[in-house]
Amino acid sequence: MNLIKILLSVLFLFGGGQMVNAPTTPVAAEKPAVAVSKVEAAAAKDVVTGGGVAAVAQCLQQKGAKLYGAYWCPHCADQKKIFGEDINYINYIECDPRGENAQPEECAAQKITSFPTWVFADGERLIGTRNLDELAEKAGCN
Fold first, then answer.
1. Which one of 22, 49, 71, 99 has the fewest CB atoms closer than 10 angstroms to its CB?
2. H/E element, 60
3. Element housing 9 (H / E)
4. What pLDDT does 33 receive?
5. Would you say the C-alpha torsion 115, 121, 123, 125 has a positive or negative sign?
6. Coil vs helix vs strand at 69
């Protein structure tokens, strides 16, 4: 592990924000904070010219939206669950240096302190688990 990753690990673990109490082992996902009911899932099909979840995910990718999170974050798991298989279209940035394909330097540069955090091309942010309609509207996918 290089010096930057070590320093960022210390910063994340002891530096404030929601990451202070980062567990050393993955946490099982809790019940989703944003439940995706059958009605909501059906309504999502009308988002972005009838393309549904995949269309929203692809639009977010095209519009440069990024999702910052950590592998142990239950709210991040909730956000990913909303996208299902289409999460692969989302530009996900892993902030914990212990996570897969971690990019803690980018998280530090963006001053990410809470998870999940969405950062849009215009620099605006949404923090917390968000529904498809809200993300589509914020990114201009409507």
1. 49
2. helix 52-62
3. helix 3-14
4. 44
5. negative
6. strand
Residue found under tokens 């091309």: 121
Q: What is the DSSP string of 82-99?
A: HHGGGGGGSEEEE-STTS
**Phi/psi of residue 126, nearest 5 degrees:** -130, 130
Q: Which CATH number do you get for residue 63?
A: 3.40.30.10
What would the two tokens of residue 32 be? 């989703």
Question: HSE (CB half, 13 Å, CA atoms) of 72?
Answer: 16
| Long-range Cβ pairs for the range 6-14 (8 Å, 24+) | 8/97, 8/104, 8/105, 8/107, 8/108, 9/97, 9/98, 9/104, 11/108, 12/95, 12/96, 12/97, 12/104, 12/107
Query: How many folded domains does the chain comprise?
Result: 1
Q: pLDDT averaged over consecutive 10-residue blocks of the chain (142 residues)?
A: 43 40 40 44 45 94 98 98 96 98 98 97 96 96 84
66: helix, strand or coil = strand
